[in-house]
């Protein structure tokens, strides 16, 4: 019976985690949380964090459960909050609903919570267990954890190249190196990230829209971001289309032209001035801190080569997603990553392989930063 109970707990928590994943890219600055309420061997209600972080998953599930929450078990992918914000504490709602037992996957690192939610529930006489599917829950909320504990978003660098790491021919031809399935996955990545970042060169060369074009997910297009130190991107660029309804931010230097900045702001573009600079331009750590201060938790970086190399060299890439197409372009082609000035293998940045997946003729390999 005990094994059956643990298997049921695992099944319910996996359901809560699946619900949490639905919120990725749309709930920032809040964590993406899933909640399942179960009673007498069946799930009676489910909830997930709403857009922008409200309502919370627990209160959503409790509202749907109604009286069936009394004596039930509540499964939450993250510790329920215990502080007053824009809404009352979830712990208060859980206790008032008469829930008997709470299973939590991961402690909330927010200093306002951090174990206090579990403590409140225990003090009220509820049975509380913590740690089921902890690693999976941490993966789901890697962005929220990064912003809370490190003061910057979780950074995913996406590359789509030939087998030899080229993003275009010597003449700049790049459409399409990867196939339709790989491109669809790229758009799904956009839908599950808070913002997408590119460098000035990518905007000037490709004039991208930086939106999600998957049917049914168009509204999940992320914040458009460009690193434009001198504000070189013309006002007519497609990245600015639809601003301010479609949030578009530029990261620039204090030395950028003031009149251009005013023109961009008048067009609905948010120009974020990064005061700190490095030898290469805008200090990337300072830029990421500024983005975190605005609530971003998950950042997808799509180009270009200089931006990719700068982030890797600074140790700011947490996840590397590399789409490889089965073709070879050769050394004359344009590389996905600019020079890293590595003189010894022992100083080369190292990533660990997480998974590999075939998408049509292409292969997507996921790596994470080591250490």
Can I get a quick summary?
By secondary structure, the chain is α/β, with parallel strands linked by helices.
Could you walk me through the main structural features you see in this protein, from its secondary elements to its overall organization?
- The protein has 371 residues and is α/β, with parallel strands linked by helices.
- It contains 11 helices and 18 strands.
- The strands form 4 sheets. It has a 9-stranded mixed beta sheet with strand order 11-10-9-8-14-6-15-18-17, sandwiched between helices. Strands 2-1-3-4-5 form a 5-stranded mixed beta sheet, with helices on both faces. The chain has a two-stranded antiparallel ribbon with strand order 7-16.
- α3 packs parallel to α4.
- It starts with a helix and ends with a strand.
- The mean pLDDT is 93.
Q: What is the CA–CA distance across the termini? A: 40 Å
What class would the helix/strand composition place it in? Answer: alpha/beta
Radius of gyration: 23 Å
> What is the tally of helical segments?
11
> Can you give the mean pLDDT?
93
Give the proportion of residues in helices. 25-40%
Main β-sheet, in a few words?
A: 9 strands, mixed
Low-pLDDT ranges = none
> Reading side by side through the largest sheet, how are the strands ordered?
11-10-9-8-14-6-15-18-17
């Amino acid at each position: 019976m005990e094994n059956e109970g643990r298997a049921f707990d695992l099944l319910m928590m996996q359901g809560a985690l699946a619900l949490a994943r639905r919120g990725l890219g749309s709930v920032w600055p809040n964590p993406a949380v899933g909640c399942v309420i179960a009673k007498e061997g069946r799930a009676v209600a489910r909830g997930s964090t709403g857009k922008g972080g409200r309502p919370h998953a627990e209160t959503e599930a409790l509202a749907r459960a109604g009286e069936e929450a009394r004596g039930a078990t509540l499964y939450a992918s993250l510790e329920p909050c215990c502080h007053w914000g824009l809404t009352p504490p979830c712990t208060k709602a859980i206790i008032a609903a008469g829930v008997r037992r709470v299973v939590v996957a991961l402690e909330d690192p927010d200093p306002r919570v951090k174990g206090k939610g579990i403590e409140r529930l225990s003090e009220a006489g509820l049975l509380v267990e913590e740690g089921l599917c902890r690693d999976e829950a941490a993966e789901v909320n890697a962005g929220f954890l990064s912003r809370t504990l490190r003061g910057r978003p979780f950074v995913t660098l996406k590359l789509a190249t030939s087998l030899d790491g080229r993003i275009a021919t010597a003449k700049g031809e790049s459409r399409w190196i990867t196939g339709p399935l790989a491109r669809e996955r790229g758009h799904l990545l956009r839908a599950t990230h808070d913002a997408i970042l590119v460098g000035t060169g990518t905007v000037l060369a490709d004039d991208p829209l930086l939106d999600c074009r998957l049917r049914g997910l168009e509204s999940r297009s992320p914040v458009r971001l460009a690193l434009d130190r001198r504000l070189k991107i013309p006002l007519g660029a497609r990245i600015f289309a639809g601003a301010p309804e479609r949030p578009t931010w530029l990261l620039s230097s204090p030395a950028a032209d003031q009149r251009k900045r005013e023109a961009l702001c008048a067009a609905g573009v948010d120009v974020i001035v990064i005061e700190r600079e490095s030898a290469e331009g805008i200090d990337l750590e300072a830029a990421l801190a500024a983005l975190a201060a605005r609530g971003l938790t998950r950042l997808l970086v799509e180009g270009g080569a200089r931006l990719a190399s700068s982030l890797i060299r600074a140790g700011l890439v947490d996840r590397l997603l590399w789409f490889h197409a089965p073709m070879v372009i050769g050394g004359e082609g344009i590389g996905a990553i600019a020079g890293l000035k590595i003189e010894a293998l022992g100083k080369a940045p190292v990533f660990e392989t997480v998974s590999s997946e075939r998408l049509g003729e292409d292969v997507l390999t996921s790596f994470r930063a080591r250490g």
